[in-house]
Each structure stands twice: as C-alpha cells, then as structure tokens.
C-alpha cells in the first residue's frame, strides 16, 4: 500500500510566520538606528537603514492578515497586490544599491559608481510605476490573500504585473549573488566581512529559490497544471529565511567589528591591571570610579594614571639592574621581547621598594623614562607572573653580587 505525500501539508509544518523575520529585522534596525542617525552622511549606513526599513515593511504588509486589512480599509479588492509587489521590488533594488555602495567603500564613490547607482534606482522606480499602471488596467475583482500570483496567473495585465515583479526580484538576486561571489574571492578580506558575505550569499540563494518557486507555479498554471503549493507553501518560509540571512549578513560585519573593538579595549584594560594596582599601592591613589564612563574612557584614564605614576618613579629605576635582569631572562631561555618585559617589571618593582625605603641613588644614571612609558603593557603582563619575575630578579642580583666579589 503506497501512501500519497502531500507537499503542502508537509511544508505547513515548517511554516514561518512573517512576523518572525519582521520582528528580527526591526530589532536589527533599532540596534543600527543610533549609528545611522549619528553618521547620516555615510552612504553605506544610509543604504543599510533603507534596506532594513524596506525589509521590515515587506514582511509587515505581505502578511496575510495585513493584506486582508489593507484591502478592507481601501475598499479595493487586491489593492495590496501592487503595494506588496512595489515593496518587494524596492527591497530588491535597495539590496543591489547597498552591495554596490558597500563594495565601493567609504572613499570609492567614483563617477562610475554614481552612474551605476543612478541606473539601478531609475530602473527600479520605473518598474514600480509600471506595476501600478498594470494593476489599474487589470480586472481582478476576487480578493485573494494567499494565492493571488497563481489565481491571476493567466489574467491579462495581472499576468504581466506578476512576471514583472518576479523578473525585477530575480535580476536583482542574480546580480547581487554575482557581486557577492566575486567579492568573497578577494584576498585580504576581514574575517567578519567574509562571514557576512557568506550569509548574504546564502540569503540571496534562498531569494532565487523563492523566485523560482513562484515562477514555476505561475508557468504551471499556464500549462494547465496545479503546482500552487510552490507559491503558497514553499515560497513564504523560504522568503522568511532569506530575509533573516540577508539582515544577518549586513549586520554581522558591523556588529563583529564593534564587538572586536570592545573586546580589545577590555583586554587592554584588564592587561594593565597588575601594573595599575602596583602604582596605586605605591602612590596611595587611584583612578576614581565613574559609573557612566565608557570602556574607552576607562582605558585612557588607567593608562594616564600609570604613566603619571611611572614618570617620577623613573629616577629610582636602576638601569644596570634592568640590563642584568634582561641577560638573566635570556639565559634561562625566555624570548627577547618577553625578557625585556620581565626586566622592566624587575626594574619597576625595585624602584617602588627603593622609593618606599627612601633610598637615594646618587651617581646612578636615570632610566629611560620614555622607553619605560612605552612598555607599560608588556611590563603589566610580566607582573602577572610574580614567580618568574622573582626568579629573574634573584639571578640578576646574584650576578651583581658575584661581580662585586670579583672586584
């Protein structure tokens, strides 16, 4: 006994409400909105804001409940069709505009780029105007909320309107996919940008699948066959997934760079912790806590405090001890850069102890204060290993005692 498989029933299990991508896209727009407003002159951010807004509008107004409400409020059966088709067309053109603008870069607005942007904008504006003209010429009295594309697939003027919006959507998807593929192959791309382009490529592939499903269902109607499930059951969840991937692809490079910069700042702030605590204990002061201070401001304040505390301490640093500590660190197998950091940590610890004991260093040349201030990061990292610093210091002091015994 063979069981018949109903594709529409199977796809109904994987149905994704249009309100899910609409909500996610709205969140993405809200996250980016402050940056877009603050840097309004940036063409990339303006294009990104426009695309996210159009994507939100597509999934809000193309929802079956919104389509029915739009038709009821205007009193015109299927008036939501040209409106939704216009939004989809505008979104397709906006995506293509953003890719062109993004690829050109912040300083790459050449004459050729501007011409390409004007051409794309002009073509898609004419397509939107043609969609409304065709709807006015068509006779579509029966309201169809979910299956308008296939129900009116053979109706004069509605047939041309459906093909026109699918063609505009498909051409934009093909061109965008080609641009993304060529861009991914470029050497030297940032990792976040490369992953964002991969998500964009996946989203555009799903957009092409959406287009193919719709077009196949329409062509099947022309041939007298019923493949409406491709348009009503397959295409909507594919469009939802495509929108989520496209939004993530555009957001990921900006969000990734932001998070990476924040992480580096926090790591730098944490890295300076040992040296900051040493200087705070030595001076009896510290950086006042500010609840509303940004991570950048906290890092700057910590760096400034450490340098201000190290500057008068530099005259207590023994250069000879630093050289012996460097040689001792090299002797036990430490790399030169790490040996230099360990020697700096030994010198700073010795200077703090000498100043606390009010030991004068008459006749001892002052250490290189500028070099000491430049090395606050490596010195602070070395202070995280007090056992290693103590071992290097002991070897350096033992070497000094042996030298003094020979003399």
UniProtKB/TrEMBL annotation:
A family per Pfam: DUF6545
Parts forming coiled coils: none
Keywords: Membrane, Transmembrane, Transmembrane helix
Transmembrane spans: 14-33, 45-67, 79-100, 121-142, 162-184, 205-222, 234-256
Domain DUF6545: start-end pairs: 262-366
UniProt-listed InterPro entries: DUF6545, MAB_1171c-like
Protein origin, superkingdom: Bacteria
Name this polypeptide is given: DUF6545 domain-containing protein
Organism per entry: Streptomyces lucensis JCM 4490
